[in-house]
Amino acid sequence: MSMDNYLRTLNPQQREAVMINDGSxxxxxxxxxxxxxxxxxxxAYAISELGVRPWQILAVTFTNRACKxxxxxxxxxxxxxxxxxxxxxxxxxxxxxxxxxxxxVGLDANFKIYDDDDSVALLCQAFPDDNKKEIAGYYRKISVxxxxxxxxxPLDDRLCKYYSKYQSMLQRTGNVDFADMILxxxxxxxxxxxxxxxxxxxxxxxxxxxxxDSNKAQFLxxxxxxxxxxxICAVGDDDQSIYR
Length: 244
Ligand SMILES: Nc1ncnc2c1ncn2[C@@H]1O[C@H](COP(=O)(O)OP(=O)(O)OP(=O)(O)O)[C@@H](O)[C@H]1O
Ligand SMILES: [Mg+2]
Fold this sequence. Notes:
Layout: H1 3-8, H2 12-19, E1 24-28, H3 35-49, E2 57-61, H4 64-78, E3 86-89, H5 90-101, E4 113-114, H6 116-126, H7 132-147, H8 157-173, E5 176-177, H9 178-191, H10 193-202, E6 205-208, H11 216-225, E7 231-236
Parallel strand pairs: 1-7, 2-3, 2-6, 4-5, 6-7
Helix pairs in contact: 2-3, 3-4, 5-9, 6-7, 6-8, 7-8, 9-10, 9-11
């Protein structure tokens, strides 16, 4: 199908959202109203009508499955070059960035990603006399604190003890947990203007699906990667927010 035909399948509001491509665009619309379809058509439109190169486009969504579906849809519309559009979750975008530049923020060249079980095991190793179940409970608190970019309550001695040991162990070994994939990426871009500039130069267009689910850290990462000339489009449905 040609681009004209793809545009013809859209309703007027969707078509308008596809064709606005300067500055920034925030689209809020209801469940199943075609938000994801707007993003994939926008990507195809930018490539075939605006001369944007596929690798200059970054699309971010919240699950690996949604990434795969979007990538397949883009490839359907523009052909093989659709493979070069970067479609990732915030976390996997962070990992991509940190695999390239992580050593600038103290990561090991082959850093490991700790999942929740690895992290609890790390704490249990450091505190062999403490109750494992309780450690796991404290780890969940640490994880929430990091996602929110907060610090542990200074009155909670045990939480503070685990938090500081955990953070220093990750730092010493140069490895990351889930929250760090975003936090270290923010840190990297804030401390290294040259890396930030390279990212800004590469991505001319950034699209975020399910924007209502992004947390503070993800929002701040987005703020770092959007350059002065980047077109940014975020679509979401505030009724479906996981933070409601
Ligand atoms: N203009 C249209 N004509 C025909 N089908 C459409 C149109 N817009 C969307 N659809 C179809 O409706 C379904 C929902 O679209 P889409 O997934 O883009 O919506 P969404 O707003 O992203 O949904 P969600 O809120 O679940 O994320 C899809 O199967 C899509 O192909
Ligand atoms: Mg959708």
